[in-house]
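Page 47, continued from p. 46.
Same chain as before, 425 aa.
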Amino acid sequence: MAQGKARTPKSFGRRIKDQQVDIKKLYNLVERRNAVAQVSSQLGGQAPNTQSTGFLKTAGDTMIGPIAFLPVLITLGATDTIDIGKETDAFTSRIILSNAGANDLATISGAQHNGQLLFIQGVQTETIPITTVGNIETIDGSTFTLADDDIIMFMFDVTDNKWQQVTIGKNSAGGVAFPIEPVITDNSDTWTGTQTLNLATGNGHVYKWIMDQALTFAATVTNRPSSGTQRTFELEFEHDGTGGTFTVTLPSNFKDEKGTTLASLDVKLDKTVILTCRINNGTDFLVVQKNVTATAAAVEIVTWTADHSAATFDLTSLDRLRFSLDSGAPTASSDPSIFLKTDKMVFNLPTADEFQFNINDVAAFFGGNKVGGTADAFFQVHGVDTVIPNLEVRNEKATPATGRIGNLNFQSENASNEDILYAQI
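Result:
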């Protein structure tokens, strides 16, 4: 038998020293356990117990090892409510939720404790909208979709008797995560008839229609956010590649950056139109970006059935003034007015007044009644400083057929219309 290297036996003093070290280690271990027990006792609990008979105190305790919740499968049936009460088979803090009736989840009944935790896990190939119409409060107050493999944590709050969402899902449902990758609510090309834009459908971010015909929206957008709450979303219209141009008639209150109402837009062959929209006041949708020219709504025509006063204020930014073909006459001879009378445009001023036409805020010519003992009709071309007044009768014909440019005629309004002065020029 081979012999190893000879070992020098420990001296008696060395053995005593090693034994003292082992005793010290054992003493330190006992002291640490006692310290934990003392702290736990002060908190109303007990020392950690690795035995299966150990219990955690409700007043607070320390646990060694992981915590796990029994998963229970619940199928959302004909209603929008699930029950996790103490008398049910789903009395747990972790449920796996499936959807048999394509319903939303709105209410979770059976809460036992303030601060009770609940984990809701999605299943493969199914999506379940979780709404806020019952006793569930999401992070952003909006409906979100529980997707495959999502695990969302909720906590019950007795303040308002609602389950408060704590975490978000993999699609950022109910919260914000980056990068933002919202799932498209795709209506495909199977839609028919008038479409209602419902902002509670899908995740409320991107709505898409494939265009194989003209698309008309209902005037009212449903489930819009309340005033003071902002929502930004996109509308996408993709031509299916067959046929000509299709028109999209937008809902009411879609406006551009100038406040002009946008009524419709065209989607041309093989094109995709995207509108980025924002609503802040609960009423108007601002189209902040678009890759197509939208058609503005027709100008509103207001019919007045009585006179209206501007109360000394100006009418500004007018395109034009349009008069009735025969708007009558002034209500009084002293009524300053402009109106149409049969085939004449009439400018009426009170007696002893005059018309003055300015150019660059300088009087250019006048017309009217000028008081000089008696009223005399006059027309005056006004010159300023070195500017020489010029009264010009102009014929735009280079070679007039009559051989003259025009006539200058002063005529008396007597029975024979006698010419006082007549000249051909």
